[in-house]
Amino acid sequence: MFLTKNKKLKIILIPLGILLIFILIMFLAVGLPAMEVYSKAQKLALKAKSMKAVFDTQDIGEIRKNLTDIANDLSGLQGSYKKLFLLKSAPVISSYLSDGDSVMKAGSYAIEAAQITLDTIEPYSDIIGLKGTGGHKAKSGEENANDRVEFVIKTIGEIAPKLDLIAEKARLAKSELDKIKVDKYPETFRGIKIRENLNTLFSLVGEGTKLLNDGKPLIESAPYLLGIDSPRTYLVLFQNDKELRPTGGFITAYSVMRVDKGKIQPVISNDIYNLDSKYIPEIAAPDPIIRYIKGPYILSKNLRLRDMNFSPDFKVSMDTFTKEVSKVGIKNIDGVIAVDTQLLVKLLDVIGEIGVPGFGNFGTKIVPECNCPQVIHELESFADVEGPIIWDPVTGKIILKPAHADNRKEIVGPLMNSVLRNALGQPKNKLPDLFRVGFESLTEKHVLFYLFNEKAQKGAEAFNIAGRIQDYAGDYLNINDANLGGRKSNLYVTQEVNQEINVGKDGRVEKTVTITYKNPQSYDGWLNSVLPNWSRIYVPKGSELISTDGFEDKGKPYEEFGKTVFSGGFKLRPQGVVQITIKYKLPAGVDKNYSLLIQKQPGTDSPSYIISHGSKKVEFYLKTDKELKFSL
Question: Looking at the Swiss-Prot or TrEMBL record, what is one Pfam family this protein matches (predicted)?
């Protein structure tokens, strides 16, 4: 009996022992390495989070030291991660392990890119307001601002080769992240938005990689643009985005400036009406301009210089404008630079209030007279003195105009000179914000370039600062508005865009785009008035219109720039709302891997967008052109 019990006990204990040994082996082979990985990952995450505070110090030495520490910790984590080799053959788990490996490799490449970037910018650290051991020590004042420019001129040729190295590291990081399929991860875990955060990370890496690749041609063209080999002459157009037009705003004034070895010298400035008074119109005006603006177009239906930015493609508009403006004396220029009022406001936000001799002080404090920045109020006051320009319906000549209508030019030159002088002479601590404002103004299309030099033009187009309508293989949307006689109503008008994406029974994508325009401000007859708006919605070529709603004046669909265009007009009243809804089918052949490019109209601030497909929803403010990708 005792033997029988002993035998039974062995039968129980032997498997139990084997199980315990197996658990012990698995703990040693998997558990301990997993705990080690978890511990090191936590340590690395804490250091990564602390990098924001390190970047805020603007100390290159401190940033480099912390990047080196993170690189060492990441290397240690990768070593521990390799100990989980037993799980690499396990179903399901293996793919997540592979993702982790890709993320760490991408992190290594990103750190290498950051380290090369630090090496590249360190010689300019003092110039751009960072702490470092740069080769040039900047001070304050205009004299030293010129020294900064000279140093950049001498060394800018060294940047492009290093940009190649940075771009290659970024490309390698992106290729690792591209291996990860985000859709297999849960939407949320313990309140953390897993999928959204991953998509944001991948999008940022993709945008950064594209920015580096696209920036190289522009950097290579910089010596030409800055007039290093010989002086350049540019026509600067001031576009009033408060009176929105297709390329960013109504062309209100112009200036000619000379750039010699990076130093800017204003030549002349004037009001656009001054040029128009010398110009004999010969080109037929687009029908919406004739029907909505009326005034000077009653007598002659030919296009005025001030309305020649009606094409939403800046190059196409400037091809016409530069040819025609040469007939009234604007010749021998190397290109056109268009700027809007948002650049001015952004610069003054950094610089602070400035004085313009003979005209007073200008700043960005919101004033109650217009519920807008003081500088905008002063510019509009000086330009209009609260009154419209009225044309005789028979002769087409002006019969009523504000007091300053003929001498608005007087403020343009002095204001531009004061802003330039103040910006160049800013103390070191304000330089990073000035560089940020400059970069944002370029990427957000508040500054546009048109250049006669082919290489320089291609550089501007590659960096997306040339205002071009882009070719795109996937879905596409570009909403372009023109204020045709609505005073400065765009100072108050907001735009909200809602896109619903559905797949029809025939497999084709059906879209409903709803655009809501709101003007919450009351009528004043000066800045804010009834807004006659002409809208053009550019979508993929071959799209079929199902229905439109909300237009008072419907245009017929047509094709332009390799797109199908839906158009129409409406009037938005102060304290009013207008909603335009367009339903259409995309051309056949749209893939399950859906992609969409949305191009932002120059001069607009940041219209809000909601894109929905089933339970998926993406919300954002459109500050720059934006590409989205997801599965249908």
Answer: DUF4012
Which residues on neighbouring strands pair with residue 499, listed in sequence order?
Answer: 513, 611
Q: What is the distance between the alpha carbons of residues 333 and 336, in angstroms, rounded to a whole number?
A: 8
Instruction: Count Cα neighbours of 312 within 13 Å in the Cβ-side half-sphere.
Output: 23
Rounded distance, CA 173 to CA 191, Å? 28
**pLDDT per position as a tens digit, 407-422:** 555 677 788 888 888 8
Q: Which residue has the higher pLDDT, 94 or 368?
A: 368
Q: Report d(CA 151, CA 124) in Å as an integer.
A: 8
**Residue 487 is encoded by which pair of tokens?**
């005073």
Contact 580, 514 (CB under 8 A): yes
State the pLDDT at residue 435.
86
Please name the amino acid found at residue 546.
I
Mean pLDDT of 49-65: 80
Residues 294-351 pLDDT 10s? 888 988 999 999 999 999 999 999 999 999 999 999 999 999 999 999 999 999 999 9
What SS3 string covers 457-496? HHHHHHCCCCCCCCCCCCEEEEEEEEECCCECHHHCCEEE
> And the tokens for 243?
């009176």
* 183: nearest Cα among 202, 209, 208: 202
DSSP 131: B
d(CA 503, CA 511): 9
Asked if residues 467 and 451 have their Cβ atoms less than 8 Å apart, the reply is: no
Question: Which stretches of 57-158 are DSSP H helices?
Answer: 60-81, 93-121, 142-155
Could you give the maximum distance between any two Cα atoms of the chain, in Å?
A: 127
Give φ, ψ of 316 to 5 degrees.
-65, -45
pLDDT score for 548: 97
Domain extent listing, the chain:
20-224, 232-462, 475-631
Q: What does CATH list as the number for 475-631?
A: 2.60.40
Supply φ then ψ for residue 60, to 5 degrees.
-60, -40
pLDDT digits (tens, 9 = 90+) for 582-609: 999 999 766 678 899 999 999 999 999 9
Reduce the DSSP state of residue 405 to 3 states and report it: coil
Rounded CA-CA distance 82/72 in Å is 16
More confident residue, 543 or 89: 543
351 CB-near residues (< 8 Å, 6+ apart): 419, 422, 423, 426, 430, 434
The CATH number of the structural domain formed by 232-462 is 3.40.630
The contacts of residue 86 (CB under 8 Å, 6+ apart) are 26, 29, 30
Q: For 515-576, what is the HEC assignment? A: EEEEECCCCCCCCECCEEEEEEEEEECCCEEEEEECCCEECCCEEECCEEEEEEEEEECCCE
Per DSSP, 386 falls in state S
Angle between helix axes 194-225 and 159-177 (nearest 10 degrees) is 160
Q: In this structure, what token pair is assigned to residue 313? A: 């493609």
